[in-house]
Amino acid sequence: MSGVGDTNGTPHTAASAAELRDRFEAALMPNYGTPGIVLARGQGTTVWDVEGTRYLDLIAGIAVSALGHGHPALVKAVADQTATLAHTSNLFIHEREVELAERLIGLLRGAATGQHSEQGSGQNSAADDIRVFFANSGTEANEAALKLVKAVAADRGLRAGDGTGYIVSTSNAFHGRTAGALALTGKAAIREKFGPFGMDVRFVPYGDADALHDAVDSSCVAVIVEPTQGEAGVVPPPEDYLARIRALCDATGAAFILDEIQSGIGRTGHWFAHQEAGVTPDVLTLAKALGGGLPIGVCVGFGRFATAFAKGDHGSTFGGNPVACAAALAVLDTIEADSLLANAADLGALLAAEITAIGHPLVAKVRGSGLWLGIQLSAPVAATLQERAAAHGFLINAVAPDTIRIAPPLTISRSEVFEFTGALPAILAEATPSASETGGTA
Ligand SMILES: *Cc1c(COP(=O)(O)O)cnc(C)c1O
């Protein structure tokens, strides 16, 4: 052990990165491989590793840390709620879950936030009804969505797996790792070893509304898509895609599940990506950024899906936990108070423009919206680029062999954007195949 006496700043960390990697490998299952960097702390858009090396965090824990690290509003909300009431289970109501549900419903209606004008309105028709179920993660939100659409389909005499019904998902989609969500996940490499799942799930190419049209008939229980595929490399669909899915579901009776687990809560410069498309799904799932780092997932039901669960149909011990709900309320308050939707839109556009303007041959294309970008590379060197970026003090994500994903905190500043784009030419040069083969400086 090194640095045992050092309690400045990192009181819990007395071990070196190399030692922690060894212990990680011995004590944790090998499903993640062994990450190269051992983080110790963060503040704003900056994180430090256990050796004190500083990094600009441009991935935010996979589009999660929307407020960056150590944001005072999040720290206070979590500390106060933990001191007041950390857990209730679903045997009891607590105020934060009610507040958060109302708040999300208000945002989904496009209402001004912070006014709680939705409270007890009781004037909405059944078709306007919106209700939420709280889970703890993205995959759990999608499990709830699956059960919800199955509950509605059962009323139509359809079951997705006994020959009467089926579900349609898209190639390369990512919907989670638990059994139901994994069955919907369109990457064979992560799915196939763990099947069969007892569900009839059919995959069509993402972004191809005609293929979807051919695949969906009146026996289809549900269509599930991401508004832009995140884990596939931040891949947006054609502009009318969501509208065409909406029309197809209306025509066939299939439920439209929209997975906004990565795209939601400001990432694209809108509260939700579907609001930009002007399309409302039947079921919506959220997670990642909502808790600002605290685990929370949400399944939202619209219209008949708002009330499709009967008492006893679903549940979670931790779901809607007061601390997670308090964190989420702090995230929503801060996004609004600090105009972070505008920041995401403006600085995302700046970031994309600056990366494109470098004109480096390794950058084939920059795609995405808001602070959610996929850099398509002209060679499969994303892992090298990620490693060279880290050596220059920037955390980015090699989401695919030829794609870099960037999803910084929504709080990122203009000068931090320029810090990265200023360093990027040198990073790109070090990652170009010829340069990296002749050896870099590390
Ligand atoms: C991350 C993600 C999930 C899974 O969320 P977990 O919290 O990791 O279970 C599901 N869908 C999408 C689109 C995601 O980005």
From TrEMBL:
Cell compartment(s), UniProt: Cytoplasm
Pathways involved: Amino-acid biosynthesis; L-arginine biosynthesis; N(2)-acetyl-L-ornithine from L-glutamate: step 4/4
The EC number(s) this enzyme carries: 2.6.1.11
N6-(pyridoxal phosphate)lysine modification, residue list: K288
The protein's enzyme class: transferase
Cofactor info, note text: Binds 1 pyridoxal phosphate per subunit.
Keyword Transport: no
Predominant subcellular localization, coarse grouping: cytoplasm
UniProt binding sites for N(2)-acetyl-L-ornithine: R177, S316
Reactions the enzyme catalyzes: N(2)-acetyl-L-ornithine + 2-oxoglutarate = N-acetyl-L-glutamate 5-semialdehyde + L-glutamate
Keywords: Amino-acid biosynthesis, Aminotransferase, Arginine biosynthesis, Cytoplasm, Pyridoxal phosphate, Transferase
UniProt xrefs under InterPro entries: AcOrn/SuccOrn_fam (IPR004636), Aminotrans_3 (IPR005814), Aminotrans_3_PPA_site (IPR049704), Class-III_PLP-dep_AT (IPR050103), PyrdxlP-dep_Trfase (IPR015424), PyrdxlP-dep_Trfase_major (IPR015421), PyrdxlP-dep_Trfase_small (IPR015422)
General remark: May also have succinyldiaminopimelate aminotransferase activity, thus carrying out the corresponding step in lysine biosynthesis.
Entry's family note: Belongs to the class-III pyridoxal-phosphate-dependent aminotransferase family. ArgD subfamily.
PANTHER family: ACETYLORNITHINE AMINOTRANSFERASE, MITOCHONDRIAL, AMINOTRANSFERASE CLASS III
Protein name: Acetylornithine aminotransferase
Organism in which the protein naturally occurs: Nocardiopsis rhodophaea
Lineage: Bacteria, Bacillati, Actinomycetota, Actinomycetes, Streptosporangiales
